Batch of 3 targets.
Target 1
Amino acid sequence: MSIPIADRVREIPRSGIRDFFEVVQSMGDVISLGIGEPDFVTPWHIREAAIYALEKGRTGYTSNLGLPRLRATISDYVNENFAVRYEPENEILVSVGVSEAIDIALRALLNPGDEVIYHEPCYVSYAPSIALAGGVARAITTRAEDRFILRAVDVEGAITSRTKALMLNFPTNPTGATMPPDELEKIAALCVKHNLVVLSDEIYSELTYDGLSHPSLAALPGMKERTVLLHGVSKAFAMTGWRIGFACAPPELIDAMMKIHQYAILCAPIMSQEAAIEALSHGRPAMEKMRSAYEMRRNYIVSGLHALGLDGFKPQGAFYVFPKITKTGLTSREFSHRLLLEKKVAVVPGTAFGPSGEGHVRCSYATGLEQIKIAVTRIGEFCEEIAADGSAAAA
Ligand code: PLP
């Protein structure tokens, strides 16, 4: 029998990253600049909090919204770091990673045909999540020449009578772009003018460099009442496997999201929630060490790639660099596949992050400096060999 898969699911492509990494895993002995996850293990004091919770027998369900103590901790953390206060009782929902929060926020908001504007290149899940929620994804292309900034004028140009929401992600995966405060203010004013809800994915907000601080959209005038602030512990605290994210939003939206969450998920795992309390209350020193290691690696990889003539702007956030590879004459996919096969270095084709990623590859520097050094050397050899092949063919 052929199983009648729903059209909306059949039409969605599989993640380009996952497919690529199945190839990487089958090869072994590869230096990976591919995966978007910290190479650090979760700091010990955070792991210990979860172990302690297990020892105390804390193994049951929690409130659907998440442990009250975790919600109170999130409220304080967000107030301290984002300068906006949310009520633990009805404005915060603990989710299974930011991934789940994105999904349930979209499902809670969208009627069939509602449009959501987002900037591209972007995290792989945005367009599929919008489509799965019945919405229509409207991408705005951002460019390396403009430091991948989302311009308010482009947002305004993309708004139609069906636009319901805007999705933002700064610092951005895969470009490492950050948002200048004045442009963010213009976008906020547009959202107020056109009555848009904003899903603001700020999962990399702690990971900024060059002394830059992260302005949260939710803190701008008129924004708290229309913003879903999405954040979690996966990236900054090296806790991808714990699966804890959270959404801060107006009570009626949290209530709607909670209805989906309680039937689909019930609650995030209790021991992970205990670990997240520890991370958000006492994790800053360990997080700061990881952040400064990323900054050092960013400096190395950016100057290494520039020296090879692979241009790109210098990212100031997250742990990705998104160099242009057009001078090699290869497409992003060809570049990534050949680099993997010929030099055993894994990078992700830019097109995994939308069609506007063509001409780029994503290199993650959440990998040890020694590995990064070898990878840059190998990328250099690869580019030289491609150039030599090109000149031989031309001769
Ligand atoms: N949002 C962005 C921009 C990401 O890059 C990722 C993971 O790579 C996620 C969300 C998913 O995060 P989580 O592990 O909290 O589900």
Target 2
Amino acid sequence: MALTRLKEILDDALSRIKESKTSEHIANIRNTFLSKKSELMSMFSMIGKLDPEERKNAGKEINDTKLAITEALEVKEKEISEKELEEKLMSEEIDISLPGRNFSVGGKNPFHIIKDEMTDIFLGMGFEVKDGPEVETDLYNFELLNIPKDHPARDMQDTFYIDPNTLLRTHTSPVQARTMLEKKGQPIRMICPGKTYRRDDDDATHSHQFAQIEGLVVDKNINIGHLKATLELFAKKMFGEGREIRLRSSFFPFTEPSVEVDISCINCGGKGCNMCKGTGWIEILGGGMVHPNVLKMNGYDPEEYSGFAFGIGIERVAMLRYGIDDIRKIYTNDVRFLHQFKKKI
Ligand code: PHE
């Protein structure tokens, strides 16, 4: 029987293997020739029925056929899977000629552009940059600035209290007191940019949180001319060479005399327009000569030392510089707004 049939099976298997092209073909061939129910495998169970003479070789022959088919399948299978992998890689090849994906980059918030510019201007004049806490005590925010309890000037700054003695600072001026106490009688030339909090958010130019840059100079022989020259230089660098400033008399408990500083209108140059409400001037900051009580309370002898201080609203400067009509636009970070301040890289 069997030997000729075995040969036929082997030839049949080998020729099908040779023709196979996919791993699916291989699986089918393996099933047809090597599964338990296949003709070849069922031959093993027939060995017992053969005569002793035939039986001797039959086992070996069937087994050899099985091995030959198994081996041929493995070789072909490897060949096919390598080819399939290569085809897959080819079809997934990265096309380096495709344009890359666009990453959209926002712009620096105008608040930070202006804060950095303002800081740079004062650094250029030899000021150092100080920092201070936003959660302050009554002592620094008011007392050491010559605003005792029950003083009506406290009403000027509607305050967020945390407890009767702790509050969100209403201005950056407490950093004046902190710096004087730290410098212990040494000359001072500092600015402090930082956040401040007040309960006045009743129109589009005010917010319960805003930011100021505080300035403080303390030394021997400092006079109001130094204040004026410093702020004039600042105004020209910030708003253009043509700017003039004007000092108007004002009141702050921690400065004497106190001034409000106006710049000539950046829109009409002083003739009078909507922006300056016809006056030709725009108010940009408050300042004055450091009050002798403040010097004294913070460790400086007012007979020997004098100084000037000022506080500038950062958002106000940004709004003037860029013509922003609503302070909230600065805080909401709408990309349509931010993109307008994007610098070309
Ligand atoms: N702290 C004042 C305010 O917030 C501004 C100011 C600072 C005035 C320094 C005089 C000197 O209104």
Target 3
Amino acid sequence: MIDIQIDWHQRAKTLKIDGRAVINGKRMSAADKATFECFSPIDSRKLTDVASCKSADVDLAVVAARAAFNDRRWAGLPPKERKQTMIKFADLIIANREELALLETLDMGKPITASLNVDVSSAANTIRWFGEAIDKVYDEIAPTADHTLAMITREPIGVVGAIVPWNYPIAMAAWKIAPALASGNSVVLKPSEKSPLTALRLGDLALQAGIPAGVLNVLPGFGQEAGSPLALHMDVDCIAFTGSTAVGKKIQIMAGQSNLKRAWCELGGKSPNIVFADCKDVDRAAEASAGSIFYNQGESCNAPSRLLVERSIKDKLVKKILAELKNYQPGDPLDANTTMGAMVDCGQMESVLKYIESGKLEGASLLAGGAQVKAESGGFYISPTVFDNVTNRMKIAAEEIFGPVLSIITFDTVDEAINIANDTEYGLAAAVWTQDISKAHMVAKRLRAGTVHVNSYDEDDITVPFGGYKQSGNGRDKSLHALEKYTELKTTWIRLT
Ligand code: NAD
């Protein structure tokens, strides 16, 4: 747990930040020496200059990754040795957790307590979990005739390009690199230009743990300049992408335009949270509904941004949700007591404020929040916002806002709730609150979403897959199923006689 005594502002003053890329085991400037300025959304302070990688750097990193893969310096190790190195990598993340948490908070704006106790811890846990798993995964023998032996084996796919977003920078990076590295691949990781700092430190710590040079390369840069050349590269075997649906579509096109690489996309969401009148614990439903939309400033892909509530308990639930808002007032992200931090940058704040204006214009009732706060800090903060009388056709209900904005929609019947819940282009997550077990199962089955929570929200862990239906994507992170994305399936058919 967090040491409440740490003076994070003081620590921030002496923090040394290296913004150079990690290529073939070395920290390097971009080939053209270009950099971009990295500012903190907390107060707009400049943090550092970061290497602005482009296609020449992508080429260099892919060549290094391919060489490392071909000479089998990592892929050829016994799984138990990769396991030990991954566990050491996880241990090093924990040993450096305060530095990593500080970087994450300064870079992205989330509260330091969340960075330390959730993001950094979960990144270490993900790397440890896949490390520990990899020497326990067996291949198959097919049920063939007596004179043949048919083996079905999984092999690493080769060079994996991982492109990740800014909302959970270290955690999303870990979701990609842990299964990819554990199964023996080489990786070129491109963090978001809005939050590249913890990914770069992961590159150092991987080397320190003993992951050989060239196996994990980290290239900071802009989407079109560094991400596109990676997605278009003829020698990258797979792109593991997490980000917006709009960019995910481009990634699929780039995969098709180049070498038909696997393109796994984990994309946006507009998740419904359905509370029926027979919900047993309305207090818990209110707490989870508010907690899950306002956590991480609402910048969560699976945030339950649409609250569907049965008319007869609506007033009671809404009153309790409004009472929860006191727990999510934006504060100084470097204060250990803060529960809501800054939006990632000015552009994201303005985009959310525009959605709030559109909600008002379309006739939704603003019950709370709706404005920028703490402007004097120089940072980008929005108060937790609740709209009532929303219809599913309004922009605030149809589009992913990616901010602390809750839209409340009222329903009268089970079928109506399911229809509204599924009436979206997304399908990442959903929740059902009821004490009727049959209703819970029946509704969960009919919801078109990759994860359905019952009487909870967002309580899952690394043991279960995470990903979306429909335009929320096509892949799954977490759990042993994630290994499927980073491995080829080979049949070896042996004639014995
Ligand atoms: P984004 O799509 O703008 O960017 C994601 C990454 O793609 C960044 O690294 C960016 O630099 C890169 N990129 C941008 N344009 C590119 C291009 N033309 N070619 C190649 N790469 C490009 O998304 P974001 O704003 O960073 O993140 C927010 C989005 O991520 C939201 O939609 C959120 O729902 C989604 N998300 C999904 C999951 C999930 O698991 N499904 C998890 C977290 C975030």
